[in-house]
Amino acid sequence: MARAHSEDFRKKVLEHVEAGHGKAGAARLFGISERAVYAWLRLHRETGSLKARYTGRRASKLTKEKLEEQLRKTPDAYLEELAEKFSVSVNAVWKACKRYQLTRKKRAGSTKKETRDPGRHSGKN
């Protein structure tokens, strides 16, 4: 994600525009988009400042504590059920489990050998 331009730079651009030069010309001169010039003019008009607005991330619906608690309550819940509980996508639950290193083994203590169907590949019907 690109970083915001400094207040000094924004001020220089707006001073150039206020000196009678066009917005498009200022954008070309300073190597920025016209949209940025218009946005800074609007920001200055609305707030009186050129300070960048904070555009931080929203708080996660899936914190490690909430997810661990839910998995303790319902250890056999499917990803779909957890997603519905937290109002997020199945992929979000899967990524959160991976990020927080939470494993969700359905059959505790089982191995591949114990779960394999012995007659499956024997050729018998």
Q: Describe it for me?
A:
- The protein has 125 residues and is mostly helical.
- Among the domains are: 7-47; 64-105.
- 53% of the residues lie in helices and 0% in strands.
- The chain contains 7 helices and no strands.
- It has helices spanning 7-18, 23-30, 34-47, 64-73, 79-86, 90-99, 112-115.
- Helix 5 (79-86) packs across helix 6 (90-99).
- The longest helix is centred in the first third of the chain and has 14 residues, at 34-47.
- The N and C termini lie far apart (59 Å).
Poorly predicted regions are none
Mean pLDDT: 85
- Strand-residue fraction? under 5%
Largest sheet: none
Terminus-to-terminus distance: 59 Å
Total number of helices: 7
Helix-strand string: HHHHHHH
Helix content: 40-55%
* Count of distinct strands: 0
| Inertia-based shape | elongated
Q: What radius of gyration results from the CA coordinates? A: 28 Å
